[in-house]
Amino acid sequence: MPQGNPDLEPPLPIFPTGSQVGVPDLVLSMSQAYEHQGTNTDQYQIFVLPTGLTEDKDIEAIEVRADNKEICHHAILGVDTTGTAAELDAADPEYGYTQFGGFGFDPADDFLSAWVPGAAPIVYPTTIGKKLYAGSDLLVQMHYGPTPVEEMDQTEVNIFFSEDPIQRYIITYPISPTDVEEAFLIPPNQMKTFHGIVDVPIAISLLSIAPHAHLLGDSWEAYAVSPDALDTIPLISVPEYSFNWQGSYSYPNLLKIPAGYKIHCFGTYDNTAANELNPNDPPQWMWWGESTTDEMYLCYLQFVWYNNGDENISQATLNEDDMMVYEKTQLFPGYPNPAGDVFNVAYTLSAASRVSLSLYDAQGKRVMDAVTDAPRAQGKHRETLDIKALPAGIYMYQLNTGDTELSGQMVVR
Q1: Which residues are CB-neighbours of 308 under 8 A, at least 6 positions away?
Q2: Nearest to 200 by CA among 221, 226, 178, 176
Q3: Minimal CA–CA distance to 131: which of 78, 87, 84, 75?
Q4: What's the rounded Cα separation, in Å, for the pair 85 and 57?
Q5: At the N or C end, where does the chain have fewer CB atoms within 10 A?
Q6: Mean per-residue pLDDT for 318-339?
Q7: Which residue in 358, 354, 382 sits closest to 369, CA to CA?
Q8: Residue 57 contacts by C-beta under 8 Å, 6 or more apart in sequence?
Q9: What is the DSSP letter of 10?
Q10: Considering only 111-115, 316-320, 370-374, which range has the smallest mean pLDDT?
């Protein structure tokens, strides 16, 4: 089409060459480049990266930096505390070891994180995150896509440790064919929909959702329904699923799914000749498999157990300066709660502000001015309150930035 008004044209995006999050606390890199053979076949290769940690560490951000994006289709990270993966690596003559599906055993964490091309680094809200164990190995299961020529890759992973203790560790649940009543088989020359159902016995807070299919994937829809069927919570709708643009959707704020609800997930597949991506001509029966030309039905849910106020916790984003920020000023749940001698208040500021932090008793009487009109920079902060002199009871802590007033509840035992 003819060019429009050039004065209204937005600037070209700037793609950073370094970390998009900041300076990592730990960088784990493949010790050597891996050669992916030019045989036009998929390859699932698992690389074992020793962490060298002498103590457990809480993680607030993970960044996979794929070296060769021409062949890196996706990566799933795991954590091994037993040395099993290192033994499998030693038994394989190649660097790493080949494993189609999973890691070949049950590691301590089989889904620490994941990466697909175009995905932003994962940054968790304060006091929510993942754990990396002392003496553990980081496992990188890399899916290399088919290539007609030999290609090299030497991917690395940036780990960012949390300054604040993690109170809730993230759980990953994949909705899969085990949650579907019928067998995962897709007949030729048909559109086929699979309906998975998962019960939510305890209230949860969803961080993200990631539906996954291969070349026959046509659409996805997921929602949660209350026991009386009077309330429906939309989770995701992908009316035109594209295998080339799969990814994970993070909710702007943590999304509560109450106890007793059911999560319904519909995945539709197009196994007809009209599907230009169909790997078979003419269409053939399709079933589960790890290769691109096989098919999958997966919908990954990442969540924590629900706490009051989770709906007000927004998830971190990255600004144009490539630093970890939050879109708005917010107050995170204080810890420990109930508290004894000290109480920590974590918060983030969308802009530099003068901050006051006060404590009030159950009758509304101000009993402590922990911070009074103190300058604080944009970003994350933590204030540690000495509460040894406070009698047992329920208190309210209030953060004031001049234009924003936020509060939470603290129990002193």
Answers
A1: none
A2: 226
A3: 78
A4: 20
A5: N
A6: 68
A7: 358
A8: 25, 26, 131, 132, 159, 161
A9: P
A10: 316-320
> Which amino acid is residue 263, in one-letter code?
I
308 vs 86: CA distance, rounded Å: 42
CA dist., res. 313 & res. 329, Å (int)? 10
Query: CA-based angle 367:370:376, to the nearest 5?
Result: 150
Read off the pTM.
0.74
Give residue 317's pLDDT: 53
Q: Inform me whether the pLDDT recorded for 170 exceeds 70.
A: yes
Distances (CA, A) of 239 to 217, 222, 242, 412: 10, 11, 10, 50
CA–CA gap between residue 145 and residue 117 (Å, rounded): 12
Residue 247: the pLDDT is 80
d(CA 130, CA 159): 11
Exposed, middle or buried: residue 411 (CB in 10 Å: 0-12, 13-18, 19+)? middle
Q: Which of 130, 111, 20, 125 is nearest to 65 (CA)?
A: 20
pLDDT of res. 320 = 40
Length of the chain: 413
- Over 70: is that where the pLDDT of 321 sits? no
Tokens 């939050």 correspond to what residue? Answer: 326
The pair of structure tokens assigned to 53 is: 């940690």
Tokens 């896509």 sit on residue = 145
H or E, element range at 203? none
Using CA atoms, how far apart are residues 248 and 75, in angstroms rounded to an integer? 13
- Answer whether 327's CB lies under 8 Å from 371's CB: no
Compute the distance between CA of residue 132 and CA of residue 168 in angstroms, rounded to an integer: 14
8 A C-beta contact, residue 217 and residue 206: no
Average pLDDT over residues 10-16: 66
Q: Write the DSSP symbol of residue 19.
A: -
